[in-house]
Amino acid sequence: MLNDEARQLQQLARTFAGREIIPQAAELDRAKAFPQAIYDQALALGLLNLTVPEEYGGAGLGCLALTLVTEELCRGCVGVGAALSINSLAADAIIHHGSEEQKQWVLPRLVAGELASYAATEPGGGSDVAGLQTRAVRDGDEYVLSGSKTWISNANLASFFVVFARTGEGAAGA
Predict the structure, then answer these.
(1) Is pTM, for the whole model, over 0.85?
(2) What are the residues whose beta carbons fall under 8 Å from the beta carbon of 100, sequence distance 6 or more?
(3) Alpha-carbon gap, residue 72 to 157, rounded angstroms
(4) Which of 3, 58, 72, 113 lies at a C-alpha separation of 20 to 30 Å from 41?
């Protein structure tokens, strides 16, 4: 059962999708363009970057809030909902696996409206992170990437990327 706060957030997302996304969905699909105006409005309403902790400027909400909002945005249009949700994929990777320095560099920028990209999919391997072929090899204080990624959502608009790669022989890492 949802509490009042969750129901209100869900209703806000439903109303937004009905008012802003559904009327434009067919044209946005035809244009194959990022819905910047819709993104800006959703950001201003607090419908994006929901899981970013408060100390980095986010709402600090959990997976349920993110799921409720994403469901309603995708109800308006799956393509638009997915495009608006990419930042959450990138943010969650940083929140759960990033260093403090990465969190401080990335998360406030997402909250401020910058776009991230999430690079996991590889040619021939799909999005199976257990089968990653891309490698990240430490070279001093940096990592050097080798490999290929494909289907990187929002890549042409992103300020930065979260790239998934193997750092060792056995386990996949980010």
Answers:
(1) yes
(2) none
(3) 24
(4) 3
Q: Which amino acid is at 22?
A: I
SS3 content of the chain, % helix, strand, coil (to 5): 50, 15, 35
- Look at residue 118 and give its three-state secondary structure: strand
* 86 neighbors 153 (Cβ within 8 angstroms): yes
* Helix, strand or coil, per DSSP, at residue 121: coil
50-92 pLDDT, tens per residue?
Answer: 999 999 999 999 999 999 999 999 999 999 999 999 999 999 9
91: phi then psi, degrees, rounded to nearest 5: -60, -45
Which phi and psi angles does 84 have, rounded to 5°? -75, -20
CA nearest neighbour of 117 among 68, 70, 81, 150: 150
